[in-house]
Request: fold
Amino acid sequence: MAEHARDKDSESKGLLSSECNVEGRVFEIDLLTLTNGCFASISEGKSARMGAITVAIKSGEKFTSSALIPESKGAIFAGMVGEMLAVKLHGIAVISLYLREELDTSSMKTLINEVRNLLNRD
Reply:
């Protein structure tokens, strides 16, 4: 019975997940949407991992992002995803990004589109 209650809570809180294959690299994407923003995890590999943390916020017509735990391989990408989510959700986005290797421009575009598509399913 506790399992059923947990599933119901996940659905009501807007937990969205996707596995994305980008040029042979597998990424786990998880979004927890809230009324004023979201938590997002993008993790390379079959199991989700914590990574660098970036926070983005939309306030009025402005938005900004800041790395709390910097990532040398994907800092710009994490900021882009965070700002896109903050703007779309009119609030705060906290992004965890775990990468094994740098992302090229094509991979970044694919992952951003996957995050956008996942958010639109909600």
Notes: DSSP finds three helices and six strands in the chain.
